[in-house]
Design brief:
This protein has about 475 residues and is an alpha+beta fold. Helix content is about 35%, strand content about 20%. The protein folds into 3 domains: about 280 residues, Zn peptidases (Aminopeptidase), CATH 3.40.630; about 100 residues, Alpha-Beta Plaits (2-Layer Sandwich); about 45 residues, no CATH class. The longest helix is centred in the first third of the chain and has 20 residues.
Length: about 475
């Protein structure tokens, strides 16, 4: 009994000491800056870009729309085109170089994309998807969140600085792809290869990514600004079975093509990849934890003892669960042609979003071990497979500049690193920079996340103006 009480007391002491030492990772002595005033003209320029339907499809793009957007940019931002060196890549992807004073400093690369995804159901939109209508303080339209806000926001910020005769110390590059939504082969991949061929290495790269999220975590009152320091990989595994014969449905054998493949998929779903709290996700908890209520702070300060509890809690929410494991998602199943014929063939596609620390090959090997059926062939769709990105530093110049800029322009937020679960153009730039970050400067709630690639995509006018202010300050902080 005494030994047990002593053990409990020691545990309480250890928890208390760790919690006490679990101090804030927010930068000290960073003062908010005064908000610059923006007028309606910058809003109208953004709306005019949203109104052009720069749609990209897997087999083609609307070239006329991209030509119209290029013309619009040249009309709206003549100073930028006059003072930056411009290079077209595969016609509709563009590189802009703003030459700095000191060539010994590594340049910075700020990237985005101009294409948008097609509209699945126009009837579900409250306002036409390319109207750019302003209603209830919001700009409505495809691209307002993904990703014209970043492209146009950067144009606006750079133009404002040029009007102030600001000249950066280091080179500042913008690079905007036109096919991110379909893999970025003609855009980001080609741009990154150009930089690699030219031997250009960047201090850091910033792409679209995570956001400032309201009510992001239980026990955290301020909005959470998450800077993506890594990106999950992805692959599609094709599972196929081809029996010698099918047969009549009136006399089904013990094993059928659909039955065996269905069992294989059920086994994969019932044996998820193990959950892990490490890398970017651990960093998120370490940065956000000290800003939370006492109980949550104690839990995150003592992960050595509470990790299982936290894994179980995060696993109950689909979005949170994706941060701690490689996800398994059956997406396509094809088999059968008639209700009384047993098919001899069945094919399924299973999508995996791969946690850093694992690879496409390790995922394939695990799937083979779980299925353990020689009749089922497992192949990787090489065309769209990608290992997880490297994990970027949280102590680098780039991360510190992003954190400082956020604390200056969004002083009410808590800043933390995070893991991006979707695919972005940023994965192509690892060869030209050790530090690649993913962040979109908008403050939204969970319901707004569904609007990205969904119906009723929109951004508030105030949010858009704040994004311009963020980019202006980021360039100032990065360029010195």
């Amino acid at each position: 009994m005494v030994i047990g009480l002593v053990a409990i007391l020691l545990l309480v002491i250890i928890f208390a000491i760790n919690t006490f030492r679990f101090t804030s990772k927010q930068l000290a002595r960073v003062e908010p800056i005064e908000k610059i005033q923006l007028d309606d003209r910058c809003t109208q320029r953004f709306i005019s870009a949203v109104q052009i339907p720069t749609l990209s499809y897997h087999d083609h793009i609307d070239t006329l729309a991209f030509q119209q957007l290029d013309t619009l940019f040249q009309k709206n931002y003549p100073l930028l085109y006059a003072r930056m060196h411009f290079r077209a890549v595969n016609q509709f992807s563009h590189i802009y170089k703003w030459k700095g004073k000191d060539p010994s400093l590594k340049p910075v690369l700020l990237i985005g994309h101009t294409d948008v995804v097609p509209i699945e159901n126009k009837e579900a939109w409250e306002e036409a998807p390319f109207s750019g209508k302003v209603k209830d303080g919001y700009i409505w339209g495809r691209g307002t969140l993904d990703d014209k806000i970043n492209v146009v926001g950067l144009f606006e910020a750079a133009t404002m600085l040029m009007q102030e005769e600001f000249v950066p110390m280091r080179d500042i590059y913008f690079a905007f792809g036109h096919d991110e939504e379909v893999g970025g082969h003609a855009g980001a991949k080609s741009i990154a290869k150009y930089f690699e061929k030219e031997g250009i290495q960047f201090e850091y790269v910033l792409d679209e990514g995570l956001v400032i999220l309201k009510e992001a975590l239980d026990g955290l009152e301020p909005p959470l600004a998450m800077i993506g320091i890594a990106e999950k990989g992805f692959t599609n595994l094709k599972l196929s079975i081809n029996l010698e014969a099918g047969g009549h449905s009136a006399m089904p054998p013990a094993k059928t093509a659909i039955g065996m493949l269905s069992n294989a998929i059920a086994n994969l779903s019932n044996q998820p990849f193990p959950a892990r709290i490490d890398g970017a996700t651990r960093g998120l908890l370490e940065y956000a934890g000290p800003e939370m209520t006492w109980l949550n702070r104690a839990l995150f300060a003592n992960l050595w003892a509470t990790q299982s509890l936290i894994k179980n809690s995060l696993g109950k929410d689909a979005a949170a669960a994706a941060l701690i494991r490689t996800t398994t998602a059956p997406t396509i199943f094809n088999s059968g042609i008639k209700d009384n014929i047993l098919p001899s063939q069945a094919v399924a596609t299973v999508n995996f979003r791969i946690l850093p620390g694992e690879t496409v090959q390790s995922v394939k090997e695990r799937v083979e071990n779980i299925i353990d059926n020689e009749s089922i062939e497992i192949t990787v769709d090489e065309g769209i497979s990608s290992d997880p990105s490297p994990v970027s530093s949280t102590t680098s110049f780039g991360f510190m500049v992003l954190q400082k800029t956020l604390q200056e322009t969004y002083p009410e937020t808590v800043i933390a690193p995070g893991l991006v679960t979707a695919a972005t153009d940023s994965r192509n730039y690892a060869p030209v920079s050790n530090d690649v970050y993913r962040f979109t400067p908008v403050c939204i709630n969970r319901d707004d996340i569904k609007r990205i690639h969904g119906s009723n995509e929109r951004i508030s006018v105030d949010n858009y103006h704040d994004a311009i202010r963020f980019y202006k300050r980021l360039i100032e902080n990065s360029a010195r």
